[in-house]
């Protein structure tokens, strides 16, 4: 056996045991190469390989970049094509073929579902559904003409509403119900620039008087040439925040008059709480006035109260809820309201005999409609004792009265021309009996000229209603019943109960 070793002499060194084994060693000698020569040869080959690989990598990276750019372009084209496809497909839906004018009207009706505490209002939501709806929504000025001034409404959002409302008349609402908060200057900069377009101003004051007076102070110097309605309401929400410490008013409380520049078209004024006439412009064109539970310390005297009511010769609707005047009227005191057509008086506990005081002092020769809400017999006794005839009165509404039969008889004697009567009473049996039976002679019925009678709720036995109608058929026949029942009576139309005339202004009718 031979072992061939490649290397120089010194490298061929074997242990003696190899020789003893009888192995034969063959030495072969090669020329000697230096280490530097070997390294240079190796580096040259590797660098060439690396350069080749780098070229391939760069080529692939370039191809990848080109492909990514192409993919991005394809994604963009695909997005726009899908949007266009969706838009065209949406127009094939039934609602998609509606004319824009009808769609805009639907959007306006949908806006009525907005609530003061709603996070997203309808007009905003509907403008983010599809492109076609957005185009209709943002180009419908009447969809954006309600400016709600609240902590959640930024000046930027209000400016967007103003821009989209264009020259449409604006309804401006200040909401101070939930937080002790006043608008900052950026908000005032937006809304005061639009005052020439205001048609209605509503302030929900809550318990934050500071915010109210600050608002009135900002409105003091301006002129609102198109403003027709002002309503200041004190909310009764359980979530209203109680102010534990007074908020600085910076002299706002003594502001002499809001809209000192004038509000020549102001026709409706609703004042609730502690806010009365001294803060408002001349009321020479006022047609509707609603006074609601003025605080004891701010109730006007009867003379000032008369000045308020007679400041306009056009006052035709007056609504009084609770006590709004201080003390008893002077003797022979009269408030002459020649154009007054409708008078509403509500409240027993805070009002008491004030009902009689008002009915005895107000002279309204054209009064056509009277509404009395939550009255008891003693409330009307001074008026009934004075026996002031209301000969022009044709319509009477009684909400939840607590009257004796004698009170009813005396009341209707003072109103001999009643033709329309609406009664809200959960136990109307005694009244129906009184209405259906003559009380002096066989042809002498209560409300002899009555033609239209409404009863709510319709809980009375149908027999009582039929007897009343039949008993009056000969001498004092009814022509219309508003009951909501399925009665069918000869000579009488029976309709569903409806409260007419409609609610005005901002007085919730709790049926």
UniProtKB/TrEMBL annotation:
InterPro entries hit by this protein: LRR_dom_sf
Keywords: Coiled coil
Residue stretches in coiled coil: 43-70
Record SUPFAM superfamilies: RNI-like
Domain of life where this protein originates: Eukaryota
Protein name: F-box domain-containing protein
Organism field: Mycena rosella
């Amino acid at each position: 056996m031979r072992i061939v070793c490649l290397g120089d002499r010194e490298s061929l060194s074997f242990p003696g045991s190899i020789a003893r084994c009888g192995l034969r060693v063959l030495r072969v000698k090669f020329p000697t190469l230096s280490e530097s020569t070997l390294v240079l040869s190796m580096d040259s080959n590797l660098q060439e390989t690396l350069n080749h690989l780098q070229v391939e990598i760069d080529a692939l990276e370039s191809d990848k970049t080109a492909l990514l750019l192409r993919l991005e372009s394809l994604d963009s084209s695909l997005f726009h094509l899908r949007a266009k496809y969706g838009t065209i497909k949406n127009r094939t839906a039934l609602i998609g073929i509606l004319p824009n004018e009808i769609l805009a009207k639907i959007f306006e009706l949908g806006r009525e579902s907005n609530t003061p505490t709603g996070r997203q209002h309808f007009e905003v939501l509907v403008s983010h559904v599809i492109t076609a709806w957005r185009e209709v929504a943002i180009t419908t000025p009447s969809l954006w003409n309600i400016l709600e001034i609240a902590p959640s409404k930024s000046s930027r959002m209000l400016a967007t509403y103003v821009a989209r409302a264009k020259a449409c008349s604006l309804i401006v609402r200040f909401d101070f119900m939930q937080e002790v908060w006043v608008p900052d200057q950026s908000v005032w900069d937006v809304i005061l620039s639009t005052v020439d377009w205001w048609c209605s101003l509503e302030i929900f004051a809550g318990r934050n008087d500071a915010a109210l007076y600050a608002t009135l102070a900002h409105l003091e110097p301006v002129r609102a040439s198109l403003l027709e309605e002002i309503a200041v309401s004190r909310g009764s929400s359980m979530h209203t925040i109680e102010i534990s410490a007074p908020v600085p008013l910076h002299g706002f409380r003594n502001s002499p008059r809001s809209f000192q520049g004038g509000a020549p078209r102001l026709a409706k004024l609703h004042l609730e709480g502690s806010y009365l006439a001294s803060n408002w412009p001349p009321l020479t064109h006022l047609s509707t006035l609603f006074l609601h539970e003025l605080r004891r310390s701010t109730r006007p005297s009867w003379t000032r109260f008369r000045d308020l009511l007679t400041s306009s010769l056009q006052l035709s609707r007056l609504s009084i809820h609770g006590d709004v005047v201080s003390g008893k009227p002077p003797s022979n005191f009269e408030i002459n309201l020649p154009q007054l057509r409708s008078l509403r008086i509500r409240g027993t506990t805070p009002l008491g005999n004030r009902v009689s005081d008002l009915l005895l002092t107000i002279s309204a020769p054209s009064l056509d409609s009277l509404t009395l809400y939550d009255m008891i017999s003693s409330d009307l006794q001074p008026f009934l004792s004075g026996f002031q005839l209301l000969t022009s009165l044709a319509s009477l509404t009684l909400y939840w009265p607590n009257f004796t039969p004698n009170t009813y008889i005396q009341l209707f004697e003072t109103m001999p021309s009643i033709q329309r009567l609406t009664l809200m009473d959960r136990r109307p049996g005694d009244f129906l009996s009184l209405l259906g039976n003559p009380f002096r002679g066989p042809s002498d019925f209560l409300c002899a000229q009555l033609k239209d009678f409404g009863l709510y709720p319709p809980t009375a036995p149908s027999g009582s209603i039929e007897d009343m109608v039949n008993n009056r058929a000969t001498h004092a026949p009814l022509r219309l019943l508003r009951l909501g029942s399925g009665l069918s009576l000869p000579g009488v139309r029976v309709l569903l109960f409806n409260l007419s005339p409609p609610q005005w202004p901002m007085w919730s009718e709790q049926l």
